[in-house]
Amino acid sequence: MEKLKKTGMKQTPQRLAIMHHLEGNKCHPSAEDIYKSISPKFPSMSFATVYNTLENLKDHGLIKELTIESGKKRFDPDTSDHHHLICVKCKKIVDLPQEIQLQQKALTTAGVIKGFRILSTQINIYGLCPECTKTSS
Amino acid sequence: MEKLKKTGMKQTPQRLAIMHHLEGNKCHPSAEDIYKSISPKFPSMSFATVYNTLENLKDHGLIKELTIESGKKRFDPDTSDHHHLICVKCKKIVDLPQEIQLQQKALTTAGVIKGFRILSTQINIYGLCPECTKTSS
DNA sequence: CTGGCTGCAAATCTTTTGCATCCTG
DNA sequence: CAGGATGCAAAAGATTTGCAGCCAG
């Protein structure tokens, strides 16, 4: 977890626990998921710390905040350029291969048209996963 | 507002007011925005009705629910296939031209790879709008 | 030692729910 | 007239805030 040092953030046990929980995590957990996962080993930790830490990690580019479900933030330790496929029924979220993204040309067009300076893009594809396709037939 | 009839929904004054407020609206308002806009003319209306109505309209395909800002739902009366450009600073949301979307091929690939049955896609491009680019320089 | 971080609790904000009443079709 | 829709208020869920005390650097 030397990543923390690079950013100048203090290396507290709480942060290490959160970082450790996120490392390689493909579940795209919400703040509450993270809190619940860690509190057994860290009963004293508060929600505020989880939120603060996630906010800090995001600001330092160590994690991404996803806007997939209205009403709940989700976080992704994978900061590479990728997008998501979401099951509208069971809420499972899986990563899409990097090939699936907007063409640079489309991005340029979008920015030029509206005069925006583009910072990031998020593509959400909603559907039914294999399991839910079966059970909802 | 004969659109309501087609769906079989009852044509109440509240619904008409909400429909009317949304008609041609390009602001992508939240439930609260809608409530505030309408309550002066309709002081008796409750939040529950706004939410119920929006939910119903969505289920009948008359509006789309956007997931752009975590923590708040937004609604769009434009149900055509289009996406959004969002200013991260002033929160302005503008429509993107229809040309900007995923290729059918990408969608097919995405679904096939994970076995999903794709229902819809949402592309959010975040950045700084012209005004905010200036002031934040 | 000092400023940033934590823990706690209360507050805020958004959305949902239960239920009695109302009114459209 | 019946069943869906409304209004109200309370509840639920997620996130934010203020502040005193703590601890990593």
Oligomer description: homodimer
Mean pLDDT of chain A: 93
CATH class of the largest domain in chain A: Mainly Alpha
Order of helices and strands of chain A: HHHHEEEEHEH
Number of helices of chain A: 6
Number of domains of chain A: 2
Globally, the shape of chain A reads: globular
CATH architecture of the largest domain in chain A: Orthogonal Bundle
Terminal CA distance of chain A reads: 46 Å
Share of helical residues of chain A: 25-40%
Classify the beta-strand content of chain A into a percent band: 15-25%
> Could you give me the name of the CATH homologous superfamily of the largest domain in chain A?
Winged helix-like DNA-binding domain superfamily/Winged helix DNA-binding domain
Low-confidence stretches of chain A: none
> Pair with the most extensive interface?
A-B, 43 and 43 residues
Q: Within the largest sheet of chain A, what's the order of strands? A: 4-3-5
Largest sheet of chain A: 3 strands, mixed
Structure write-up:
The structure is a homodimer of 137-residue chains. Chain A has 137 residues and is of the alpha+beta class. Chain A has two domains: 2-76, Orthogonal Bundle (Arc Repressor Mutant, subunit A); 84-135, 2-Layer Sandwich (Dna Ligase, domain 1). The first copy, chain A, is built from six helices and five strands; from the N terminus they run ααααββββαβα. In chain A, the strands form two sheets. Chain A has a three-stranded mixed beta sheet. A two-stranded antiparallel sheet of chain A has the order 1-2. In chain A, a hairpin with a 2-residue loop joins strand 1 and strand 2 (72-76). In chain A, helix 3 (31-38) crosses helix 4 (47-59). Chain A starts with a helix and ends with a helix. Chain A binds chain B through residues 65-74, 85, 87-88, 94, 96-97, 99-100, 102, 106-107, 109-111, 113-130, 133, and chain B through 65-74, 85, 87-88, 94, 96-97, 99-100, 102, 106-107, 109-111, 113-130, 133. Strand 5 of chain A pairs antiparallel with strand 5 of chain B. Chain A binds a DNA duplex (25 and 25 nucleotides) through residues 9-12, 14-15, 30-32, 44-49, 51-53, 56, 70-73.
